[in-house]
Amino acid sequence: MSASGNGKRVLVVDDDQSMSQLLERGLARRGFVPTGTNSAAEALALVQKERFDIVVADLNMPGTNGLELCARIVENRADTPVVVITAFGSMDTAIAAIRAGAYDFITKPFELDALVLALDRALTHYSMREEVKLLRRAVGAAERFDELIGSSPEMQKVHALLEDVAQSEATVLLTGETGTGKEIAAKGLHRRGPRRDGPFIAVNCAALPEALLESELFGHVKGAFTDAKESRDGLFVRANHGTLFLDEIGDMPPSLQPKLLRVLQDRTVRPLGGTEEVPVDVRIIAATHRDLESAIEEKTFREDLYFRINVIHVALPPLRSRGGDVLLLAQSFLESLAGRSRKEIAGISATAAEKLLAYPWPGNIRELQNGIERAVAVARASELLPEDLPEKIRDYKRSHVLVVGDDPKELVTMDELERRYTLRVLELAGGNKTMAAQILGFDRKTLYRKLEKYGVK
User: Less packed terminus of the chain by CB within 10 Å, N or C?
Assistant: First the structure.
């Protein structure tokens, strides 16, 4: 038995009693809880007294017809979708039904599957519409760690861990895909920590050439190199009594890693060209999108440095695994950007919200913010519509890797099945081999061997 209806109450209105009973039986088999009536007047009375999730109404009935019934329900129960059915299908009647407030329009004869699909779509749409209505209130009430917003179970765990370690002096390693909010988390830890009155200084270890990064971190004395016309303090010294955020530490050149390790161990720094050690008192927060355990296996990251920075590990989840957080963040960005642009955009339409939830967000929060900024810039209505969203978001269609089919010629060997599944898991893990190996039940060395066999670097 299909559970498509999931216990949803549906009111069936049709003056043809046999048709009404047929629909009731069919919908009950599909998991709905149907109630039938043969007149629009009785249907209106029922809608006033009881709560129905959806109404199915015949168009042509004596007295009050389906269009009038639909209009009355929409007027009094705007949160109850109506699907109209008729034996006289035409464009004019379809337009009239939609104008009356019907969500969908189906012509007789029809398959029960077609009606169930229409009901499922309507229920999903109206559920989304109600969720969108609550978004503005939800943004204000959403759990957050400074600007790190989210109410999903994944983010609740992250918030709890960040709250626990904020008052600590311990080194924190933030991991997660690019754009998941690692710098926001780092700033929040600083603002809520015991060093909040000291400086917060950030450096991207992947953005600077090796020689420049060394000078930036440790400083230099006058004459240390050709352009060193005067001495300059490094970021460790400038961040004294505050926090130094080492972003993308997984991309730090191997030649600099021993020097960084020494600073972290001894809490002193020697500028380039200098002979004296300068004491430093900083809290270190490091971040990376790379899989450092795999980098250790590949000899591109020092294991002793990893243990030194990985005192407390906070893994920030990708946006695609955070469910409704997408809409919370989108509404938050919308309010900020619309205010800045002096546009009166109250919220997000249900259809646009569906598009936002369907998209996988490979660029995570940063991509979502850019998408909402684009949408606000081109929006002309009082809410964001699907056509305001970037093309790749509004036109996105979920794809699946074909594993088996009905045609025996499409069936694949177990080796090919394993290859496809392994690569799919690696893709969904954002390239993180440690996470992928855990999901697959392999150790990392086994995964490496398989990837080498598949020709994947």
Answer: C
